[in-house]
């Protein structure tokens, strides 16, 4: 496994295992499989409904806690200082942990400044090792960075070969925020796994389109958290550290960028109404 160092000195694996849309019943088995195959970073969220399963797996896996990196996220309905403070303690309890390695604000809605103050407080108390945000576009990220005491360490945004977030990445670099991808496979949209560019480049290294895409993001300075419920795919997804894409390969994949989301825009009022209406 390779690591990056966040702006506060905390080391984070460049590749982790995401549990979005993995049921609480299936999640424990999946996380145990992932850890058994060498994953050391697990990404969950309050809204996923599987923090308990992640905690169970971490407790049973046999890997020392200090070798693991746990991420969770505060949901919109827990926004604001008081609610966020309570929800953070609840996440800690569900994860059965003495500390959480990284906590993110899941969406840039509700009183996220209040939420961030609660996270800063927990960070200063030492039971959260790093704090950051998710789905913050450059305008909101710049605003937040300009007025908080503890600079966000990570911004997790939709990032894949079809939406490479080049401009957003530049601003993250400028403000010392680590770029992390959710949806590195674009959830299979646009025939992702059979994309001819990815497949052709992958052939050179005896790798799949998925492995090629993950390698591209890692070489672009992006942390990735691919998800699969199948052990064989977990093994393939972590097997991306024995080859390096050359400049020609990188340039070819860069041309796949459409600079548009394949999911939703946080600037779209209907999206905002949908997200803020999810009270979970």
TrEMBL record:
Name this polypeptide is given? Aldo/keto reductase
- Lineage per the UniProt record: Bacteria, Bacillati, Bacillota, Clostridia, Lachnospirales
């Amino acid at each position: 496994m390779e690591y990056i160092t966040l702006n506060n000195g905390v080391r984070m694996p460049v590749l982790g295992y995401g549990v979005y849309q993995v049921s609480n019943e299936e999640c424990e088995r999946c996380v145990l499989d992932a850890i058994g195959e060498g994953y050391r970073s697990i990404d969950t969220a309050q809204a996923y409904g599987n923090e308990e399963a992640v905690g169970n797996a971490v407790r049973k896996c046999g890997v020392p806690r200090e070798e693991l990196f746990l991420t969770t996220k505060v949901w919109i309905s827990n926004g604001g200082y008081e609610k966020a403070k309570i929800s953070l303690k609840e996440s800690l309890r569900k994860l059965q942990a003495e500390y959480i390695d990284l906590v993110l604000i899941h969406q840039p809605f509700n009183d996220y400044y209040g939420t961030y103050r609660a996270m800063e407080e927990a960070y200063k108390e030492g039971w959260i090792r790093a704090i950051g945000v998710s789905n913050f576009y450059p305008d909101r990220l710049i605003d937040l960075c300009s007025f908080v005491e503890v600079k966000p360490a990570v911004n997790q945004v939709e990032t894949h070969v079809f939406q490479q977030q080049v401009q957003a990445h530049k601003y993250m670099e400028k403000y010392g925020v680590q770029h992390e991808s959710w949806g590195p496979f674009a959830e299979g949209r646009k025939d992702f796994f059979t994309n001819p560019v990815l497949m052709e480049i992958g052939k050179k290294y005896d790798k799949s389109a998925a492995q090629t895409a993950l390698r591209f993001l890692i070489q672009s300075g992006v942390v990735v958290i691919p998800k699969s419920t199948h052990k064989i795919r977990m093994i393939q997804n972590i097997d991306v550290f024995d080859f390096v894409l050359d400049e020609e390969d990188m340039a070819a994949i860069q041309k796949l960028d459409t600079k548009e989301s394949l999911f939703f825009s946080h600037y779209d009022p209907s999206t905002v109404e949908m997200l803020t209406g999810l009270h979970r």
